[in-house]
Amino acid sequence: MRSTLKRFAVCDGKTIERYLAHLTMSPGEEVVPVGDLLPSPKDGLVELNRFHKLLSERHKNENNDIVGVQLHHPSSDVMRMLRATESASWPLFKHDLRPAGDLIKRIEQRINCVDSGIALRVEENLTKELEISSYCPSIVFSGSRYTYFAPHVTGLAADRNGLVSFSNSNKWTLWDNAVLDSSHVVLRDGEPLRVGSTRQAGLTTQKILELASKCMTSCAGRNLRSGDLILLAGFHSRLPVSSGGRFSVNMGPFGGDVFATLQ
């Protein structure tokens, strides 16, 4: 039964604690509905940024620093469903990143979707300007803390699209702009499940860096810097997972693949 507690109007430390309790709650445990904790569209971007900043500060105190940002473009299925007109972004933390090939417990971590991604590495060039230096395929696991999925873009971004973990390939390839006009395949136990295409995102390297820099400033209170990651995702329709298996993402001629096993 839905709680009758009034929605929290302003994000504060207690709001973050309640939200984090949601991520570790036991089945059947009664907690405040996640929609009552996260910012809503009427709260505006300021409150969303405040939520992310407080979340980042809380994780930093536990040696779980920001390692980058994730971008979800407005042409993805979920963003079109929510009628988004701009890309959404949220912070990535050190503990979100799992080694490639890792064994992940699906039920214990409440994973219900898998997504392909492309991880980009930011570095300084010879003129001390930031650029995307290399890339690799990534596999992203998520589980909605809402009943099904976020009802609006603000909630999607605040909840980081239900992110549970992501894994990057161990092999990084020198950056090529053609990656933003390419296709890749998501497989389970070697069988193709989805084909993802980056061209629908309509992103450029300059736009990616601008969006990531803006997100980093609002979430972490610092500039985007050398060594940070940018994770692009949302290149195919939602892919629910109801059983385990070896999930992988292959970029074909653009080099490399990555896999993780759900138990």
Can you describe what's shown?
One of its GO terms (molecular function) is 2-oxopent-4-enoate hydratase activity. InterPro entries: Fumarylacetoacetase_C_sf, Hydratase-Decarb/MhpD_sf. The protein has 263 residues and is α+β, with helices and mostly antiparallel strands. The protein has a single domain, classed as Fumarylacetoacetase-like, C-terminal domain (Fumarylacetoacetate hydrolase, domain 2, Alpha-Beta Complex), CATH 3.90.850.10. The protein is 22% helix and 31% strand. It is built from six helices and 14 strands. It has helices spanning 13-23, 34-37, 44-60, 77-81, 153-158, 205-220; strands at residues 66-72, 88-93, 97-98, 103-104, 113-124, 130-142, 163-168, 173-174, 183-188, 191-197, 229-233, 239-240, 245-250, 257-262. The strands form two sheets. Strands 1, 2, 3, 5, 6, 7, 8, 11 and 12 form a nine-stranded mixed β-sheet that branches. Strands 4-14-13-9-10 form a five-stranded mixed β-sheet, with no helix packed on it. Strand 13 (245-250) and strand 14 (257-262) form a beta hairpin. Helix 3 packs across helix 6. The chain is globular. It starts with 12 loop residues before the first helix and ends with a strand.
